[in-house]
Structures are given as C-alpha cells and as structure tokens.
Amino acid sequence: MKQLALIPNKTISKKEIKMLEDYWAIEENNRIEIFVLTNNEFLKKYIDTGYFSNLRNIEILAIYQVEECNVCLNSFNIVINDRAHLESYSQSKNKCCRVCGHFQSSIENSKQ
What domain count does the chain have? Predict the structure, then answer.
C-alpha cells in the first residue's frame, strides 16, 4: 500500500502538517509495513508543543493506494480513518475494491 495523501478537515500550518506526516509515516521491514514512530515515541516528540494540542481538533483522512484487488486485480484507493484502521487493513489478507467487495457481500448474503 502506498500513501497518496493526508486530508485534514481544516487548514493547518506547515508544522502541523509535519507532525501529522510523522504520525502516519510507515517503513517496510521484511515486507511488513510498520509505523516509524510508535504512539509513545510520537507523544514524547510532540506532547510539549502547541501543535499537539491542536491535533485533537483536526480530523485527518489518509488516502492509500492498494496495488491489487483480490478479485478484479486492479489497483484501487481506500480511505483510512486512523492508525488502528491502517494496521487492521494492512494485515488483512482479503483486500477488495469497493465494487468487488459489494459483489462478494451480496453473494454471501444471498446464500443465507
């Protein structure tokens, strides 16, 4: 997965952008994507800054590109809400685009 954009719900400063880029930064280690900074490391780095208190008022959506849908094999974009969502999604074995996901869901529901 490749991060395409971070989209805040309001205008933010360059220093806040840098802080959020650090928060979302990922590195690949043995084909496993992990956050560059743990939550504790991030807190230690930014807790005493005025920008950290602004973080509570900023809602960020991260846009990621997934290389391949498990069904149609096309790349697709996904909106990620937070780090827990990113960790969960990146560890998921079944990554489907929205169209294929709806199709699979309708097939599963029709079997019941």
Answer: 1
Q: Which domain holds residue 38?
A: 2-111
Q: What is the mean pLDDT of residues 47-55?
A: 81
Note the pLDDT of residue 4.
93
Q: Are 61 and 7 in contact (CB under 8 A)?
A: yes
**String of b and e for 57-74 (b: at least 16 CB within 10 Å)?**
eeebebebebeebeeeee
Type of residue numbered 19: M
Q: Rounded to an integer, what distance in angstroms lies between the CA atom of residue 54 and that of residue 11? A: 12
pLDDT attached to residue 37: 92
CB 100 within 8 A of CB 72: yes
pTM for this prediction: 0.78
> Kind and range of the H or E element at 85?
helix 83-91
